[in-house]
């Protein structure tokens, strides 16, 4: 009689999770040098095999265009040789970062002589569920490997060819460097059932991180039995205070909105103090028009838009909560800083808000009252980014308040454990 292995009755997703669990156990004790060598091999392989990656990506892009996908989503999906080189550079940036594993968070000698240390350790197996952003495939793999974690990657079906090619390159490089190739796996299957299986793999997967639109994030948070680090959408605000420098305000606004519209740290709402609105808005609207931005304006903004080059449409209640990810911005005039804060509290996704002001008092009050992951003073919202913060490529931007908040770098991919060292100590 043939004895069936337990693996024979497992689904492909469950088998992948078991392999990841074994790989995570092998990764956890590895020294930094071993992980860094593997990441350098990954970076080199991405550049050497760029043609293979771009060719696979072109199939995804063509299918997306044929399906009528929006330009902003196609932009996120697209990989060019330049973008692949930039992704490889990001991997090398991760190599240069300190390894958080083994870091002593706190420690002391207790009165009874026991040595107590709290040290960082890998989370274990990290699942990433994300939409049409193939660069996330490499970012997530690099950060997870550096922090000693295995990763299960479940990208969208629209990027399946791209992600398959990228994971193949990464696994070849990781295995060639002597690390377990199963530390990086693409979750098998393109159906929603494979996503559900990943979300229910409690005990095999230690944490899930969703990256994408509001619907994806809500679904993962609501349906997952695996603990979730919630990453949020980016309904980001720029507030121009009564004491703002107008030149600075225009530059910050245009950069926040139009530098790259398809990303979560792009500004989606402009709020302007009534005392400066007449002087600021005509200039700001013309600058937005030059950048190709349509303004969804309240009545007071619309009244000041006469004679400007801007394309102005009437704002609806839905505009205040919309993450456009396009060349659109909602705009309103507010009576005071406190009214701006009130508006932000009502509509924000908790991502990033910016104030432009020369008043230290206004800046201090704004930063105290606004409760988002990042509050910028006289700076673009586009700086909310792991790379810009010096963390290396980020795994996502958490808008929750437990464990990790804001751009998530290497330390946020670790947990801790306590090391208790005694000399025959027993408890009385």
From TrEMBL:
InterPro entries: Ald_DH/histidinol_DH, Ald_DH_C, Ald_DH_N, Aldehyde_DH_dom, G-glutamylP_reductase_CS, Glu-5-SA_DH, GPR_dom. It is found in: Cytoplasm. Its main location: cytoplasm. Keywords: Amino-acid biosynthesis, Cytoplasm, NADP, Oxidoreductase, Proline biosynthesis. Residues 12-308 form the Aldehyde dehydrogenase domain. It comes from Streptomyces doudnae. GO terms for cellular component: cytoplasm. One of its GO terms (biological process) is L-proline biosynthetic process. It is an enzyme of class 1 (oxidoreductase). The lineage of its organism: Bacteria, Bacillati, Actinomycetota, Actinomycetes, Kitasatosporales. Belongs to the gamma-glutamyl phosphate reductase family. Its EC number is 1.2.1.41. It catalyses: L-glutamate 5-semialdehyde + phosphate + NADP(+) = L-glutamyl 5-phosphate + NADPH + H(+). GO terms for molecular function: glutamate-5-semialdehyde dehydrogenase activity. Catalyzes the NADPH-dependent reduction of L-glutamate 5-phosphate into L-glutamate 5-semialdehyde and phosphate. The product spontaneously undergoes cyclization to form 1-pyrroline-5-carboxylate. This is Gamma-glutamyl phosphate reductase. Pathway: Amino-acid biosynthesis; L-proline biosynthesis; L-glutamate 5-semialdehyde from L-glutamate: step 2/2. PANTHER family: DELTA-1-PYRROLINE-5-CARBOXYLATE SYNTHASE, GLUTAMATE SEMIALDEHYDE DEHYDROGENASE.
């Amino acid at each position: 009689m043939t004895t069936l292995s337990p693996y024979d009755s497992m689904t492909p997703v469950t088998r992948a999770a078991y392999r990841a669990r074994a790989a995570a156990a092998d990764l956890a004790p590895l020294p930094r040098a071993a992980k860094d060598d593997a990441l350098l091999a990954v970076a080199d392989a991405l550049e050497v095999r760029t043609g293979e990656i771009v060719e696979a990506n072109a199939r995804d892009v063509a299918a997306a265009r044929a399906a009528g996908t929006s330009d902003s989503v196609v932009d996120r999906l697209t990989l060019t040789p330049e973008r692949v080189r930039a992704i490889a550079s990001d991997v090398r940036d991760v190599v240069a970062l300190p390894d958080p594993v083994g870091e002593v968070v706190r420690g002391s000698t207790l009165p009874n002589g026991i040595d107590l240390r709290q040290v960082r350790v890998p989370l274990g197996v990290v699942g990433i569920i994300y939409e049409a952003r193939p660069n996330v495939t490499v970012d997530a793999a690099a950060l997870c490997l550096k922090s000693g974690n295995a990763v299960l990657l479940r990208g969208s079906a629209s990027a399946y060819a791209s992600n398959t090619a990228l994971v193949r390159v990464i696994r070849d490089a990781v295995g060639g460097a002597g690390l377990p190739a199963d530390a990086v796996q693409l979750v098998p299957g393109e159906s929603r059932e494979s996503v559900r299986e990943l979300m229910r793999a409690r005990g095999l997967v230690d944490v899930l991180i969703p990256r994408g639109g509001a619907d994806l994030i809500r679904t993962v948070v609501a349906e997952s039995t695996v603990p979730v680090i919630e990453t949020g959408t980016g309904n980001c605000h720029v507030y121009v205070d009564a004491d703002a420098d107008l030149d600075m305000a225009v530059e910050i606004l245009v950069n926040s909105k139009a530098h790259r519209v398809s990303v979560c740290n792009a500004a989606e709402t402009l709020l302007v103090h009534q005392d400066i609105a007449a002087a600021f808005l005509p200039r700001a609207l013309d600058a937005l028009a030059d950048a190709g931005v349509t303004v969804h304006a309240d009545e007071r903004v619309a009244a000041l838009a006469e004679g400007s080059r801007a394309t102005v449409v009437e704002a609806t209640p839905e505009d205040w909560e919309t993450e456009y990810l396009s060349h659109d911005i909602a705009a309103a005039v507010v009576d005071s800083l406190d009214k701006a804060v009130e508006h932000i509290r009502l509509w924000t996704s908790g991502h990033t808000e910016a104030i432009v002001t020369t008043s230290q008092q206004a800046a201090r009050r704004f930063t105290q009252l606004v409760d988002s992951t990042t509050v910028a003073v006289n700076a673009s919202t586009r700086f909310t980014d792991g790379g810009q913060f010096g963390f290396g490529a980020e795994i996502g931007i958490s808008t929750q308040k437990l464990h990790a908040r804001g751009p998530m770098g290497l330390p946020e991919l670790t947990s801790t454990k306590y090391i208790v060292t005694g000399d025959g100590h027993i408890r009385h």
